[in-house]
Write a structure and sequence with these properties.
TIM Barrel; 11 helices; binds iron/sulfur cluster
Length: 328
């Protein structure tokens, strides 16, 4: 695998638990230690072609000292684009917000994505997101900065109402800053699977092609980025582990990656998500029988299969139940 970039999931912990989130944030206390960063960058031959690094969560600024430590360590190895995502819950007043952004920049951050939409709004005052956006612009960084907001797929229950609220919130947070809006469709991964209803009766039988949507059509045959989480898991999609840096060198995990390396990935590569559904039926493991799209088949069947395959984890990537916080 030739890496173009890495997203570090520094924690699954968050002050919020949005109903479209990929992860179970409740009870997820672990925060990444810098030894994981050292292990990832120890062999520069693996990371030298990368053009970007992203740090995301959970909410990365839920533990600011640890967050700054992680960023400083990444920057000691990597001098190109370092982006972060945040829900700006911490942006409680103008001075604090400006200083926090300034600190992030001093630790090498070149791009900041602020989440603001209908799903975050029950947890984070919209004024905080607006304040963070203003402070980002006043600190003069413009590249890779955007207002990130979930959008429902148009065939989803209440999508028109929810999407118009999301657009209204995004424009309010943007105010006069011209910071680009980055609306993203809700994926059927994690709690997002609960949002993407009604389900289809016919089981979607396409191949996996959304591994990393921002990098074009990518599947298990041609991944070009990985997620590295706070446990040292290296994943090609949320919850699909190809190795752990505490067990195997990062360079070995990446250079020896093949679409045949484990049962789940080889089925995904050859048969697509529907192959996981058939595997679960063969193993007599209970799964849903109606799904919204291929990622929904994949995620829902992986969740059912999770305790039977060590390449499926950690538990935070397989949330159960609902995060009922939204009004509509
Ligand atoms: S959820 Fe499954 S089908 Fe969707 S991108 Fe991830 S691996 Fe591919």
């Amino acid at each position: 695998m030739k890496l173009t970039g890495i997203t570090f999931l520094s924690t699954y912990n968050c002050n919020a638990s949005c109903s479209h989130c990929f992860f179970e944030t409740k009870g997820a206390s672990k925060y990444m230690d810098t030894d994981i960063i050292h292990k990832v960058f120890e062999d520069s031959s693996i990371t030298k072609h990368m053009t970007w690094v992203h740090v995301s969560g959970g909410e990365i600024l839920i533990n600011q000292p640890k967050c700054f430590e992680i960023l400083e360590t990444i920057h000691s190895y990597f001098k190109k684009n370092i982006g972060i995502s945040t829900n700006a819950f911490w942006a409680k007043n103008k001075k604090l917000t400006f200083n926090t952004i300034q600190k992030l920049i001093s630790y090498g951050v070149t791009g900041i994505a602020v989440s603001a939409d209908y799903f975050h709004s029950p947890y984070i005052p919209i004024t905080n997101a607006k304040r963070a956006v203003q402070a980002i612009v006043e600190n003069g960084i413009r590249t890779h900065c955007y207002i990130m907001g979930a959008r429902c797929n148009v065939d989803i229950v209440n999508s028109t109402e929810i999407n118009s609220i999301c657009q209204h919130i995004a424009e309010h947070v943007q105010n006069k800053t011209n910071m680009p809006l980055a609306p993203t469709q809700i994926r059927s991964i994690g709690f997002g699977s609960n949002i993407n209803i009604p389900k289809k009766t016919k089981i979607p039988n396409g191949m996996c092609s959304e591994l990393s949507e921002c990098l074009g059509k990518r599947g298990p045959m041609n991944p070009s980025m990985v997620w590295v989480d706070c446990y040292g898991n290296v994943m090609i999609c949320y919850g699909i582990i190809i190795g752990n840096v505490f067990k195997t060198d990062f360079s070995t995990i990446i250079s020896e990656y093949t679409p045949k390396q484990n049962k789940i990935i080889s089925i995904l590569a050859k048969q697509g998500p529907k192959g996981l559904y058939e595997l679960a039926q063969t193993l007599k493991i209970k799964t849903p029988h109606k799904f919204y799209d291929e990622c929904d088949v994949c995620f829902s069947c992986r969740k059912a299969l999770q305790k039977h395959f060590e390449e499926l984890g950690p538990p935070e990537c397989y949330p159960t139940g609902f995060n009922n916080n939204t009004i509509l």
